[in-house]
Specification:
single chain, alpha+beta, Ubiquitin-like (UB roll), DNA polymerase, domain 1, 8 helices, 32% helix, elongated, binds FE2/S2 (inorganic) cluster
């Protein structure tokens, strides 16, 4: 079964720039190339013409509601971009396995959870990226974040941002999500400390709190 947090295939994703297009063809783009280069490549995404970009490219990403320009190589993952190329660095998204097996790097792309270690930064162009730093509003934690604190949902805390991102997407869709639905939503997240029972308690409590507030 496919993991919903892994990048979708190019066709279903409807993204502006296909991964396949990036890795084939010939041509050179010098370091410091502009957003326009990526836009040019994006314009060809739906065609079968090979597009190849080498060196560094400047991308404009929308992260947590703010536009940010980053200069990265085409192969740079969204995870690497968030942690090492943003200003300020967004280190709440954790880097653990970097191969799509632990979920610590989970962020939202257009509201859907994805592994940022398995997503290229260029694939995030034109999409809304939300990281753990973007959930709280003016310093006020979400119901889920508060519930994680209240229910002791983390020990070392390294997996916590990923769990929160996965489960928050589930509860945003359906605050009345069942335990089974919540478990499924974070089935791609691993906790080496074994806090699963507290995580699920927190998620159910957050759902109740969201419903009591009339939705979110
Ligand atoms: S760091 Fe991305 S899934 Fe583990
Ligand atoms: S709280 Fe330590 S890995 Fe989950």
């Amino acid at each position: 079964m496919s993991d919903p947090k892994r990048p979708h295939d190019d066709a279903s994703r409807g993204t502006s720039l296909s991964r396949r297009a990036f890795f084939r063809g010939a041509g050179v783009v010098a370091a410091g190339s502009l957003v326009g280069e990526a836009a040019h490549a994006a314009a060809h995404a739906s065609s079968l013409e090979p597009v190849r970009i080498e060196g560094s490219v400047e991308l404009e990403l929308e992260i947590n509601g703010a536009r940010q320009k980053v200069t990265v190589e085409p192969r740079t993952t969204l995870l690497n971009t968030l942690r090492n190329h943003c200003s300020p660095p967004l280190t709440g998204t954790k880097s653990v396995c970097e191969r799509g097996s632990c979920g610590a790097c989970t962020v939202h792309l257009d509201g859907k959870p994805v592994y940022s270690c398995m997503t290229l930064a260029v694939d995030a162009v034109g999409r809304k990226v939300t990281t753990i730093e973007g959930l709280a509003t003016q310093g006020e934690l979400t119901e889920l974040q508060s519930a994680f604190c209240a229910h002791d949902g983390s020990m070392c805390g390294f997996c916590t941002p990923g769990f929160v991102m996965s489960i928050s997407a589930c509860l945003e869709r359906n605050p009345a999500a069942s335990l089974e639905e919540i478990q499924r939503s974070c089935s791609g997240n691993l906790c080496r400390c074994g806090t699963y029972p507290q995580v699920f308690e927190a998620a159910l409590a957050a759902g109740r709190a969201m419903r009591a507030k009339g939705g979110k």
